Amino acid sequence: MAHDVVVIGAGLAGLTAARALTRGGLDVVVLEGRDRVGGRTFSDTLAGVPVDRGASFVGPTQDAVLALAAELGCPTTPTYHDGANLIRWRGKVRSYQGTIPNLGPLSLLDIGRIQWQFERIAKGVSITEPWTSKNAAKLDGISLGGWLHSIKATSTSHDLMAIMSRVTWGAEPDEVSMLHAVRYISTSGGLNRMLDVVGGAQQDHFPGGSHQMAATMAAELGERVRLGAVVSRIEWSDDAVAVMSSAGAIEARRAVVAVAPMQRLDIDIAPAPPIEYQQLAQSWPLGALTKSYAAYPTPFWRADGRSGQSLSDQGPVFITFDVSPAEGPGILLGFTDPRGFDALPEEQRREKVLGCFSALFGEQAATPIDYLDQRWGAETFAPGGPTAAVPPGSWTEFGTFLRRPVGPLHWAGTETADEWTGFMDGAVRSGQRAAAEVTVSLAALRN
Q1: Which of 85, 138, 232, 246 has CA 20 to 30 A from 149's CA?
Q2: In this structure, are strands 77-78 and 204-205 parallel, antiparallel, or unpaired?
Q3: How far apart are CA 347 and CA 345, in angstroms?
């Protein structure tokens, strides 16, 4: 064989796998269809400041990605959180403290009830094999929205959970399996850990952009990484693979396919794996989410005692964060609903985002010094994001095939992780797991 391993996809999962395999003494080549590495991490500059068009935040217990970042020399910085948060709700803007806004005593009681019931259900769901759980069929037979309806969640609670669903999966509660929601949130350590800033998944971010991790790993791998190599076909036998791409054919003993599950459909695999593998890819769609940024001379909202964090029941921006560097300028990040937004011309998109920022933070937000947005649904590769929005019925039917190897083919990507699924940490863990699988498999050949 020309190589020991071919890795398809140069996101965090693929590069982590390639790096581990190379350090283990194996000959590896990485094929990436884009003209850049990083996958769903992608950094740019706004008013001269690095910002993340893709994945941004890291937090406690995300040990895999934090260890990798430290090893690569990519520091993190705390996400600004001092001051009051804002919520634009039912036509009014009010301030609140903490993660859950106080929209009245009945609202707080209902959210507490929902969280208690949700976490009680989670205790009975297996993270590694959720389809084996006692109530798997029942939970996978309804959506998160259907479950909220069944327990008679108030309209306020349902709308708050919809914001959580949009930012987490890029999907509405009615589009996500309840089993998937429970399992996904459990891999993060619970709702509080997933949603909080301090002590939670949004606690820190990378001042130089999260993409620097992928760029540094790719630089280490050097000519092993081949960009613009769109993979169209994989042929395999028990002990070999041949991968055809726009950059030519590669032969190896093993392959790591490190792309989003739905993107597996773009690759013709021969002989065809069992039909369930294709059905899984069809049943594991990416959600849809857009990110919008505006830069200002200073983070003016801080002078008003505002944290820059907000929620809104009016779109297209539904949640914001302050990701300003310590020395300025002020940078507001807005997670944006792509429906009715992505198809607009850039100037109209800008106008709508700044209208949302102004409604929350005042007229100063209407005149930024720079603006950009990232429409992940417009991407050529794996359009959508930030992760798979798995619909009802998918886990119990096809979950067992999510990462089970097929001959010499191994699967990676954040969706295949059992810890911090859907996050950068999950991507890194999946690459480590796939590399370990391949190493054991090749060792068995030598023995």
Answers
A1: 85
A2: antiparallel
A3: 6
The SS3 of residue 131 is helix
Taking the C-alpha atoms of 353, 284, 16 and 79 in order, what is their torsion angle to the nearest 10 degrees?
A: 30
Under DSSP, is residue 12 helix (H, G, I), strand (E, B) or coil?
Answer: helix
pLDDT in tens, 331-363: 999 999 999 999 999 999 999 999 999 999 999
- Average pLDDT for residues 19-43, to the nearest whole number? 97
Residues across the chain: 447
- The enclosing H or E element of 345 equals none
pLDDT at 328 over 90: no
Tokens of 447: 């023995």
What is the DSSP track for 40-78? T--EEEETTEEEESS--EE-TT-HHHHHHHHHHT---EE
Q: Note the pLDDT tens digit of each residue in 98-114.
A: 888 888 888 889 999 99
Cβ atoms of 435 and 256 within 8 Å: the answer is yes
> Residue 116, exposed/middle/buried by CB under 10 A (0-12, 13-18, 19+)?
exposed
**What's the pLDDT at 383?**
87
By the 8 A CB rule, do 171 and 74 touch? no
DSSP 238: T
Lowest mean pLDDT among 108-117, 150-159, 225-234, 378-387: 378-387
Category of 420 on φ-ψ map: left (φ > 0), alpha (ψ -120 to 50) or beta: left
The yes-or-no verdict on residue 1 having pLDDT over 70 is: no
Measured between alpha carbons, how far is 395 from 131 in angstroms, rounded to an integer? 6
Quote helix, strand, coil % in the chain, to nearest 5: 40, 25, 35
Helices 105-122 and 155-169: crossing angle, nearest 10°?
Answer: 50
The conformation of residue 224, written as its DSSP 8-state character, comes to G
Beta-carbon contacts of 189 under 8 Å, excluding residues fewer than 6 positions away, are 61
pLDDT at 289 over 80: yes
Token output for 26: 């194996």
Helical H runs in 123-267? 136-140, 144-150, 155-169, 178-187, 191-195, 211-221
